[in-house]
What does this fold into?
Amino acid sequence: MTSSKKNNNPNWHRDELILALDLYLRHRQKLPPEEAKEIAELSTQLRQMAKVLFPSYVPSDSFRNTSGVYMKLMNFRRLDPQYVREGKKGLSQGAKGDEEVWQEFASNPKRCRETAEALLRGLTDDAFADLPEYPDEDLTEAPEGRLLTRTHLSRERSRKLVKAKREQVWEQTGKLRCEVCAFDFAKAYGEHGAGFIECHHTKPLSTLPENSKTHIGDLALVCANCHRMLHRGEVWPDVEGLRKLLTGG
It folds into this structure.
């Protein structure tokens, strides 16, 4: 993560921007002033989030302080057609990340609220405290941000749960086939492919911290190729959606 030359604080991360946009959208008609409790609460939450987003960074007094939070809300105003139509302007400059999060969530305040609530639950429950980094550079980070993406991946890579899912499906069907394309590793590779298949977590990312345990029914069996496709793009498709893309249906 690069740092700002002006105050040496890390640039705003997507996860932080989602929380800020949620506050903006909930007070779109009349933003709270810089000294309001809502601004102070978000400042506190962002400083708490820094422990997991920027683990090697020791926050300075200026890091996500109330002035910085209020300024970020003003950055969103410049993107808001409701505000601009009235002949008003927010701050003239803003980061690319502001625009990306605005395009993703501004038209769907409910989704933004659910994602923000999931992030806050994860902080409160320490669900993000020991999450491993995902090493795959080709994996597309979900629109919901880094922390929920890491939560998703950690759950679908649980060896114990994946083993249980494979055993359950084998007992029920006698085969392990991809639920998207029906590829069967054993059929294609013989004994070498027997028992092999990957698992994909199917629950929406915004529900992950709330549902403290992952159940077998939350997993889908998928081949490596389809699993890649489920984790690709600005909006991740679900299993049924990917199957329709594959079959043209």
Residues 37-53 form the longest helix (17 residues). The first strand starts at residue 198 and ends at 201. The chain has eleven helices and two strands.
